[in-house]
Amino acid sequence: MTGEIVIALLAATVQSGTPILFATLGEIFTEKSGVLNLGVEGVMILGALAGFVVARQTGNPTLGFFAAGLVGSLATAIHGMVCLWFCGNQVVSGLALTILGTGLANYLGTTFIGTAAPGFTPFAVPLLSAIPVIGQIFFQHDPLVYVSYLIPPVMWLFFARTRFGLGLRAAGEYPAAATAAGLNVRAYRWLGIVGGGFFMGLGGAYLSLAYTHLWTSSLTAGRGWIAVALVIFAFWRPGRAVFGAYLFGGIMALQLRLQASGTQLPSSILLMLPYVLTVIVLVLSSWRKRTSDEPASLGVNIAPAD
Question: Which of 229, 193, 225, 163 is nearest to 302 (CA)?
């Protein structure tokens, strides 16, 4: 019985960590181009609402999922205009995007509170789901979880082996040198911003179309901020982001199960656990900053004439 409980908890860890993984990968993609986006929370909740509404109106959750990604890209394009056209402060712009996205989604989603929409349901992957323990943990989920397995290696290949990926990294490392080499740094940063926003929107859609199938206010519950912290924990590496996302997903799954089991711990303490872990992760990550892949020009605007 104990083994079954552990396996169920680990499977819930994967599910709980998936929206955080999507958002973290999106922020890594953006920051690799040299742009800091603290608006992940706002983008995620806008994507969650867009995916929910489109799925509800069309009856097609797949269409809602991609609509969420597009809305995420459009939302981050606002950040791009501020940072790339007007050379505004990236920190302030990102915070404003979080406030705007959270407020707008909660306002527009008021009429949908408590309602359901068609979503994704779990299915077992043939053969792989039959593997003892591993199959139960990783291969009995909804399709979006399986999509999340593919993105980190594909993103790593993009950064390490493709011309566009290397150009994106160059824009974040040494924009002046990249410009001298004939690269359009502004275009690459636009790619980083809207591409990262697409993944953030997908992370929000997972919450409304796979995790809950319902709409509630403040559905993201701070997951966007956790994603921002996880980028530092992952040292800007997609592979490490998987471990970090599942670590936080495990804490979230554990606190939900502790509440359901009738533990005597106050619920407020349990709800604090993921965010306490965020602080601990940031402190521990700062000790190994020299080994990270942080872009050298992260948060530094390029000159208007570039």
Answer: 193
2 or 80, higher pLDDT: 80
Q: How many CA atoms lie within 13 A of 127 on its CB side?
A: 0
Extract the tokens encoding 219: 């559905």
Task: Decide if pLDDT at 243 tops 90.
Answer: yes
**Residue 117 and residue 208 in contact, taking contact as beta carbons nearer than 8 Å:** yes
Average pLDDT, the chain: 92
- What's the count of helices (H) and strands (E) in the chain, helices before strands? 12, 2
Q: Count CB neighbours of 137 within 10 A.
A: 18
The pTM of the full predicted model, rounded to 2 decimals, is 0.94
AA letter at 9? L
Contacts of 246 (CB under 8 A, 6+ apart): 13, 14, 17, 21
**Statement: residue 288 has pLDDT above 70:** no
